Amino acid sequence: MTAGTDPFTGRTAVVTGAGSGIGAALARELAGRGCRLVLADISSVALEAIEKELRESGADAVGILTDVSDPADVENLAAGAERRFGAVHIVCNNAGILATGPLIETPIETARGVMDVNFWGVFHGIRTFAPRLIRQGQGGHIVNSASLTGLQGVGELGIYSASKFAVVGISEALHQELKPLGIGVSVLCPMVVETQIADHASHRRGESAGEVVDQAPRLRQSAIKTPEHVAAQVARAILARKFYILTHEEERGILRDRADRLERACDWLDETALKPRAEGA
Ligand SMILES: NC(=O)c1ccc[n+]([C@@H]2O[C@H](COP(=O)([O-])OP(=O)(O)OC[C@H]3O[C@@H](n4cnc5c(N)ncnc54)[C@H](O)[C@@H]3O)[C@@H](O)[C@H]2O)c1
């Protein structure tokens, strides 16, 4: 895509986790900007509802039942998108699940389940769609959903944080690799957004969504944004080719504190202590 070209009108966008929350808002935002939509979700009920809503609003949309943790399903999603629309230009690897509770009490199957969707789901999306975008030679943009917890670890959200750090890491690498090829990459890192994620979460000790937020005091300080606010930020970032997509002003202080702490760790380095001892000393 050349600078100044409309990245949305008549282009095809794939959104995973499109049945709810941020994914549904992204689908509406992109459809509103003239994209054709390929909607993916593991929930057939949620998928049918968003497909119906978008079609009734006049959008060209198709839903494809997909479990993003299964590479064969993601391949099927790409094949279905190409059959229907010929090409894909925007890919939002958005599907994700939450798990809460003390890290040391996290069951292995819970940890694997979170990594399967949040990390492997994004990885499968990248491996399946990025080569197609490159082959098409029409530019495009990949948006990976991480979280502020992918930039700052948060107690009681340990495995979730780990999965989101992994998404930030592969997104930073992908951005470097695809930039010379004219394909944009963004990583979405919101604080708390008003969605169903806590209801879909795997809780320890039967905690409620409210308690999840209470356990992470700095997250609690965040204003709760709407999915629509987040989706609008994503569209702006695609237009402006911004890599990091932050959504809450409160993120500024948290990220500055982290950068300061890391920088101060460099001050603490003692070069003389690291020098090899002189022979015989
Ligand atoms: N809500 C927040 O506060 C918040 C904050 C930061 C980041 N995020 C991230 O935003 C993304 C969207 O979350 P949300 O808040 O809209 O959640 P949500 O639970 O409202 O929506 C997620 C959707 O993904 C679908 N999904 C779950 N597992 C799937 C799978 N294996 N394959 C395909 N679809 C699957 C669900 O059925 C659901 O429709 C996630 O990656 C989440 O981690 C959310």
Keywords:
281 residues; alpha/beta; Rossmann fold; 7-stranded parallel sheet; 10 helices; 48% helix; 12% strand; globular; binds nicotinamide-adenine-dinucleotide
Outline:
This protein is an alpha/beta fold.
According to CATH, what is the topology? Rossmann fold
Bound small-molecule species: nicotinamide-adenine-dinucleotide
- Give the integer mean of the pLDDT values: 92
| DSSP helix fraction | 40-55%
CATH top level label: Alpha Beta
Structural account:
This protein is of the alpha/beta class. 48% of the residues lie in helices and 12% in strands. It has ten helices and seven strands. The chain has a seven-stranded parallel β-sheet, sandwiched between helices. Mean pLDDT is 92; it is low at 203-215. Nicotinamide-adenine-dinucleotide binds at residues 16-17, 19-23, 41-43, 46, 66-69, 94-97, 117, 121, 145, 147, 190, 192-193, 195-197, 200.
What layout of secondary structure does this protein have?
Layout lengths: L11 E5 L4 H12 L3 E6 L2 H13 L4 E5 L5 H15 L4 E4 L14 H29 L4 E5 L12 H21 L5 E6 L19 H7 L1 H4 L6 H14 L3 E3 L4 H17 L3 H4 L7
Parallel strand pairs: 1-2, 1-4, 2-3, 4-5, 5-6, 6-7
Helix pairs in contact: 1-8, 3-4, 4-5
The protein binds nicotinamide-adenine-dinucleotide.
